[in-house]
TrEMBL record:
One of its GO terms (molecular function) is dihydroorotate dehydrogenase (quinone) activity. Residues 452-471 are annotated as: Disordered. Belongs to the dihydroorotate dehydrogenase family. Type 2 subfamily. GO terms for biological process: 'de novo' pyrimidine nucleobase biosynthetic process; 'de novo' UMP biosynthetic process. Its EC number is 1.3.5.2. The keyword Transport does not apply. The chain crosses the membrane at residues 80-97. Residues 452-461 have a biased composition (Low complexity). It catalyses: (S)-dihydroorotate + a quinone = orotate + a quinol. This is Dihydroorotate dehydrogenase (quinone), mitochondrial. It comes from Aspergillus carbonarius (strain ITEM 5010). Keywords: Flavoprotein, FMN, Membrane, Oxidoreductase, Transmembrane, Transmembrane helix. One of its GO terms (cellular component) is mitochondrial inner membrane.
Length: 533
């Protein structure tokens, strides 16, 4: 515009216009200026477009950020929610899965294990291994809420006050791998073993068979054992771990202090209100006819194991070691039990373990039962476990039930039968042992003295003849009564109550646990509590 104005003025001035050169110079200057302006304009329009771009970009970024902020927050929230839900699920799963009341143990775990391990012995090994591992990491099933705490099931055994009258019988934990996880599922007594002096393989596999329709089993393990030395080492380590964890220190002295009761718990179970039983047996290779060799077998086990046991159980009733059951005849039994009692008394521990003998349900003639009772009184053992697996093949339950063909085949396998079908015989046999043991208690000088005293009292005071006669104390009132544990077919609280009423102090289970899973003891105790109401 400036340039046009200058040109117009020049035209109107004509040739007369002075200072043309300067005009040209001005013109040149203004052209340069114009270019610079144009450049500036171009530049400023470039800058403007760049700014615009930048603004656009920034706007886009802002929009993006504005858009993404809730997305990011959403993702974070999602992660938090997922993490929390996972943690909660794990926690709930842990609380549920480790509670013996959870029905998953019976209706989930047991069928699954059976499916995964068609061979019952594989399932047994898996069960022991998994329980051992879970216990190591604190993930084992256990009784929560201290159901025994109400004291309704408290029972006295061998002068101990036990939290309940339920036990787990021999063979479930053959090598003492899992006494603690077993205690945690609720029994007051866990029996480990049977162990033999030397390691032995037992019978060839397969040697354990299921009869699922009957919740029963047949086994011919044949006392497979890692040997008494192995079990002693395992139990010793257990005591040492306990001693260390409870501030007694390490090494021999700490172990001895715990074994001598300084921890205030029984030296075997290491738990208040509970007892550990250790079962011993003879090696298969030890000749049946050599009673001295057989005694040495049992005594060897006792020497190694007695200090880790609250109760020693002498197994003379496994049906799977040839000749073993013959040792239940009165004479050899008395000799063996005397040897065991003697060895148990010489254990290097403040309190000595009690000794029991586990008898068969098949040797049940009057002569056999009374021979065993004589051996019990004659040897000084403290009690009897009645009974074990049976060589008989009981009728299926319910009456008239036909077994599936697979189970009919299993039924023909050699071995000891266990499961609910044993129950009626068990309760009857407990009753017989109870009355016979009480009736055959020997008369000691103390009893005679008491009887004479009561007789003199009645004679010396004739004016008291209208009073009821003073009863002489019976032998069983003076001598400690022999203790009975019942084993065979116990699966519920009603049956537990029946064997207790028949004279047993403890109702033991094995097969019911393999079919009912880790909650079985808790369930049976609950049922027993209801029975008692
Ligand atoms: C697979 C298996 C292994 C057993 N091992 C032993 C054993 O080593 N020592 C023993 O005295 N009893 C053993 N028993 C017998 C049980 O301890 C128990 O006395 C018997 O099974 C009867 O009780 P239940 O019907 O509750 O199982 C075993 C039983 C089974 C099923």
């Amino acid at each position: 515009m400036a340039i046009n104005a200058v040109a117009l003025a020049w035209r109107s001035a004509g040739r007369r216009a002075p200072a043309l050169p300067s005009l040209r110079a001005t013109q040149r200057t203004s052209i340069l200026h114009r270019e610079s302006l144009l450049r500036q304009v171009r530049y400023s329009s470039d800058a403007a477009s760049q700014t615009k771009e930048a603004a656009k970009e920034t706007t886009a970024q802002v929009t993006q950020t504005v858009k993404e902020t809730p997305k990011k927050a959403g993702r974070k929230l999602k992660r938090t929610v997922l993490g929390t839900s996972l943690a909660l699920t794990l926690l709930v799963g842990y609380i549920y899965g480790t509670d013996t009341r959870a029905s998953v143990h019976r209706y989930g775990v047991v069928p699954l294990v059976r499916l995964l391990y068609p061979d019952a012995e594989d399932a047994h090994h898996f069960g022991v291994d998994i329980l051992k591992t879970l216990y190591k990491y604190g993930l084992n099933p256990r009784e929560r809420g201290d159901p025994d705490g109400d004291g309704s099931l408290v029972t006295e055994v061998f002068g101990y006050t036990l939290s309940n009258p339920i036990g787990i019988s021999g063979g479930l934990d053959k090598h003492a791998d899992i006494p603690d996880p077993l205690f945690e599922i609720g029994p007051a007594i866990v029996e480990v073993g049977g162990t033999t002096p030397l390691p032995q393989e037992g019978n060839p596999r397969p040697r354990v068979f299921r009869l699922p329709s009957q919740n029963a089993m047949i086994n011919r393990y044949g006392l497979n054992s890692k040997g008494a030395d192995h079990m002693a080492a395992v139990l010793e380590q257990r005591v040492r771990d306990f001693a260390y964890a409870n501030g007694f220190g390490e090494h021999d002295l700490a172990e001895q202090r715990v074994l001598n009761g300084e921890a205030g718990v029984p030296p075997g179970s290491l738990r208040e209100g509970k007892l550990l039983a250790v079962q011993v047996a003879k090696n298969k290779a030890t000749p049946d006819s050599d009673i001295e060799a057989i005694k040495r077998d049992y005594v060897y086990c006792v020497d190694r194991l007695a200090k880790y046991a609250d109760i020693l159980v002498v197994n003379v009733s496994s049906p799977n070691t040839p000749g073993l059951r013959d040792l239940q005849a009165a004479a050899p039994l008395t000799a063996i039990l005397k040897a065991v009692v003697g060895a148990a008394k010489s254990v290097d521990r403040k309190t000595k373990p009690f000794v029991m003998v586990k008898v068969s349900p098949d040797e049940d003639s009057d002569e056999q039962v009374s021979g065993i009772c004589d051996a019990v009184w004659g040897s000084g053992v403290d009690g009897v476990i009645v009974g074990n697996t049976t060589n008989r093949r009981p009728d299926p339950l319910p009456q008239g039930f036909t077994l599936p063909s697979k189970e009919q085949t299993a039924l023909k396998e050699t071995g000891g039968y266990s499961g609910p079908q044993l129950f009626d015989r068990t309760v009857a046999l407990v009753s017989r042992y109870r009355s016979l043991l009480d009736a055959t208690a020997p008369t000691t000088p103390k009893v005679i003295e008491a009887q004479e005293a009561s007789a003199t009292t009645t004679q010396a005071e004739p004016d008291m003849e209208n009073l009821p006669p003073v009863e002489a104390p019976s032998a069983s009132e003076v001598l400690p009564r022999k203790v009975i544990f019942a084993s065979g077919g116990i699966t519920n609280g009603q049956q537990a109550k029946a064997v207790l009423n028949a004279g047993a102090s403890i109702a033991m289970m094995y097969t019911a646990i393999t079919y009912g899973g880790m909650g079985t003891v808790t369930r049976v105790k609950d049922e027993l509590r209801k029975e008692q109401q």
